DNA sequence: TATGAATGAGCTTTCATTCAT
DNA sequence: AATGAATGAAAGCTCATTCAT
């Protein structure tokens, strides 16, 4: 009986993920408003009513999608900066992991930026508050690495740690967007130092 | 007689701008798809038919909005980097001007990023080709400043000029988005050097 | 003063006819519903308000058009069958006149059949009652010719005179429609007897 | 299970026919442009969306209507002229069948001629090409009967067979229209010979 | 429990008509 | 008297959502 219900639950979860996978592809390809619930149902080979058993409305499906993906990314990035090593190693791993995550989940990234669909404009706004908090928490964690490096005399205190965290994250995103937009022309550097050097090395001659 | 027709034209222009102002606010608040032409008409206190006298359809109204605003921004930014002075002065003026433009046109900026409305993900995609070309042209102009600085031995050649241009531009945008989203918490630095230093000064101790 | 007002009235009539001429062309080209009052106004180089000075609405303009044209056709056909001569000469003149009228007024004929636009289906229905009465009156006049011919022993009484009138009129229309539809292939016979013979000569061998 | 799906399909077909019946009545009463999809939906007691499940747009519904009816008429008329017998018997049966079809399907006939909805004038133009071909094919078949009669020496060769076919067909239509418009006053002759005599017997005394 | 037929609010757009100038 | 800017009812159509089976 417990086994039975477990099997059922597993089956349900599998169906839920099947729907989300189809929705992810469609939303990232065409944008939120250009995908209909019927289209998702048809491609996932479920009845439209079944979709509404799993997600109470279109918005919920969309949010669940974002949440699930953000979860995976967050875990991977947290893991990268929490692993042992000095500040430079941690940043290096962060740059590398962010690149891998982006490149292995192009559809999801597109989803993030495909359509903010609401009162929002900024890369964060329009996302679920849960996701925004998650990103904020991560940036502070990243800032702590800079702070620790500065305290250790390893980094110059050229800006506030949080500013530096935002700057590094943004620098990575910039390279990744260039790559996403035109993979032939722009390559996300395999060596993380290429990006870190923009922060680490002096641009202006002394 | 000429006076008469001038008054009419002025009146027409005023109405057109009134519609655009209302549309700008609504689109930037709620996104393209969540604003109806009736809503715009009602808020602008015109009959729905009158909107269609000025803009042949919703898409045209939206594009006209983007184009007009992009025009103003482009002019301001070009002026900033074309004014006399060495490379550092030009970049400084650019950072400052971009900040002013953003902060004085928050609604417009929201519009730019409110909704890409398509299968796109990148911040440029989904925009009118005219605007994309304009942005691209500007980035190349910005890249030339870096290139000139490198040739003059004033900058270290730590990355390709175009990459540096994109990086600086995105760095500014990122801080401005943080400010836009939460003006109390995040302040766009009044001193441009705060941003430029991230690129200009060594982060890692030698 | 009387001269003055006469000149004005003439001018007004000229304008009215100018509008009707433009409307006739547009309606016959595109059909009633596919022509807008604005289109007519623009092509006639009048303000839209001016059209409404002459015709209280679109329907009225259309009806006026039909009425005026029907007037001209009716006059021509009546004249044809009222002119002196025996029954055969009258019918001959009728066939010839109907041909000339059709061929010289293709646009108008198209107008008649372009769109019945109402609860109607038949070639008469949907037309103004005035026009229907006019046509009915004409057919009776035509029937009288057949009756007179039969009474004079000049025609076989193979059917009621009214039936014969309808048949002859329809025979002419048939030839003319064939011609209208494909002027190269089907020619309306220059010699009226070609049509009359279908009625006048035996088809079945005795 | 199969029974189940059959019942569903029958139900669907019934609904489709219900919509078409309502549409037929409305279109034939008021003409294509003067009937709205909402009106059809309301009268058929369906939601507007349901109409669009059956017919992808208004035009399709209209065409489906014409096609279905034309199909039935075509079959009946072909059957009439293909049944055994000499040319006169075939023509007689044709005249009779056409009369029956018209009189039993007044609404449909009205539909055919209710509105050509275009720049067309001719009774055929504006119809679907499929229907026009069907009519054309039928007229040629009818022409062959005349030709065969002429070759057999049974008919005088007073005109080209195709012309005679068109003439007979239009003659029937004309009388049927008179009847349709005013059933009390004009009677479509019960005896087909009344019409055929106009073609078959000499009108003018020798 | 899963289905998908049915719903109808709400969208964009057109155009006959009005009326202040 | 002539104008044409302004109006808004109403059209065709879509699609998120519901609920009887």
How far from one another are the termini of chain A? 75 Å
What is the radius of gyration of chain A computed over CA atoms, rounded to a whole number of angstroms? Answer: 20 Å
Helical content band of chain A = over 70%
- Principal-axis shape of chain A equals elongated
CATH superfamily of the largest domain in chain A: Tetracycline Repressor, domain 2
Indicate the multimeric state: homotetramer
Total helices of chain A: the number is 9
Poorly predicted spans of chain A: 115-125
Biggest interchain interface, per-side counts:
C-D, 54 and 52 residues
CATH topology of the largest domain in chain A: Tetracycline Repressor, domain 2
CATH class of the largest domain in chain A: Mainly Alpha
What is the count of distinct domains of chain A?
A: 2
List the helices and strands of chain A in order: HHHHHHHHH
**Approximate strand percentage of chain A:** under 5%
> What is the correct CATH architecture of the largest domain in chain A?
Orthogonal Bundle
Structural class, from secondary structure content of chain A?
Answer: mainly alpha
Short recap of the structure:
Four copies of one chain form a homotetramer. With 206 residues, the first copy, chain A, is mainly α.
Descriptive account of the structure:
4 copies of one chain form a homotetramer. The first copy, chain A, has 206 residues and is mostly helical. Helices cover 72% and strands 0% of the residues of chain A. Chain A has helices spanning 2-30, 37-44, 48-54, 58-82, 87-104, 106-114, 129-151, 161-181, 193-200. The radius of gyration of chain A is 20 Å and the shape is elongated. Chains in contact: A-B, C-D. At the C-D interface, helix 1, helix 6, helix 8 and helix 9 of C face helix 1, helix 6, helix 8 and helix 9 of D. Chain B binds a DNA duplex (21 and 21 nucleotides) through helix 3.
